[in-house]
Design brief:
Layout lengths: L1 E5 L2 E4 L4 E8 L7 E7 L6 E6 L6 E3 L7 E6 L4 E6 L8 E8 L10 E4 L3 E6 L1
Parallel strand pairs: 2-11
Antiparallel strand pairs: 1-3, 3-8, 4-5, 4-9, 5-6, 7-8, 9-10, 9-11
């Protein structure tokens, strides 16, 4: 699976962005998907994950109620709708594909896309 994330940009605090992750290959629907982020000087961290059908979602505590992960298997695309953005959300966001439902560890994801930069100004 090859993954390509897009949709990042510069936004003011309180604003919204929608990230997309386009997957190539016929196996997108057989993978659980996740979003991770890495802020400057910090380790990459789990943001959200979704199961194969899109019926179950998992979130890091710090994004609950603000971010929504979704997928369109017909379009081979993963999304992350981000609302009420805060300056501390500034990071490079990356999408990943794995096997275990609800996985939050980087090591459980086999395929990674390049990141897309999200910058939130105060």
């Amino acid at each position: 699976v090859q993954l390509q994330a897009s949709g990042g940009g510069l936004v003011q605090a309180g604003g919204s962005l929608r990230l997309s992750c386009a997957a190539s290959g016929p196996t997108f629907s057989s993978n659980v998907m996740g979003w991770f982020r890495q802020a400057p000087g910090k380790e990459r961290e789990f943001v959200a994950a979704i199961n194969r059908s899109g019926g179950s979602t998992y979130y890091a505590e710090f994004v609950k109620g603000r971010f929504t992960i979704s997928r369109d298997n017909a379009k081979n695309t993963l999304y992350l709708q981000m609302n009420s953005l805060k300056p501390e959300d500034t990071a490079v966001f990356s999408c990943a594909a794995g096997r275990r439902v609800g996985a939050r560890s980087l090591s459980e994801y086999e395929y990674w896309g390049q990141g897309t930069q999200v910058t939130v100004s105060s």
